[in-house]
Model the fold of this input.
Amino acid sequence: MKFMSGKIIDGVAHAAAIRKDLFEMVKLRKEHYANKRHIAIDEKSGNEVFNKQKVNHSLPPHLAVVLVGDDPASLVYIKNKQRACEEIGINFSLHTLPKTATQDDVIKTVDKLNKDETVHGILVQQPFPSHISKHEVVLSVATEKDVDCLHPHNLGLVAMGQAHVLPCTPSGVVNLLKRESINIAGKHAVIVGRSDIVGKPLAFMLLAENATVTICHSRTQNLSEICKQADILVAAIGQPKFITDGHVKEGAVVIDVGINRVNDKLCGDVDFEKIIGKASYITPVPGGVGPMTIATLMQNCVRAWETLNV
Done:
């Protein structure tokens, strides 16, 4: 079958639908908690006492973002997250540290947010200045507030298929496939890229959906031949327009996770114009996976709010 033009998957529209659902969910939950009496019965005395936990239930979800320095791209990403929070009804706070802040300064800020009962999700914006250890900062975030799902504990739960929150970009990819009614079970999914943020967790998530998964990387031999075996091809290698029509078989689903700036324009890891006529479905850049990444972050924040208020 010849695909004259692949269907462009509209990540903007899917993300907007998710935000709308989250808005309604948060609104209903807040009304439910607000209508509850903040009184409990003390087990020992049998007297009515003020129930602090129920008061916390009536608070809206709260995402706290920690930024070290003033990287322009990071500021844009944070603004997009803030807008999504405001649309849904999630409180948002930004905690900015100078580029010269020490690792201890960052960890102390995170620890303060860990202990703050009004904060339900914590995200430390990357990239960090070179003198700060990403690993140590990630470890400092409380696992129940790790809405980026970067802590090794939470990633381990992803591998076991028991995670409560999911890595934002991989979850966005799987969500797009499901929302487009693209069957994953039994399909051969090839992921080009093995990062801890996308490639590795996405492999576990696709396995959980019963796909057969192959991970490729910079040292993979015969890369194009392996890619051409894919029913679902995910590009997450960080090289602009790296995946061309020579990597894609007729009718494959192509998901472009990459985001690169070339000549002051954004493009993905996929050569979109060359592949759109060959793929059955394809995501654009921008407007594909990116909006779904933020939508998943919002979902994680709401889930963390619900979990902490149980």
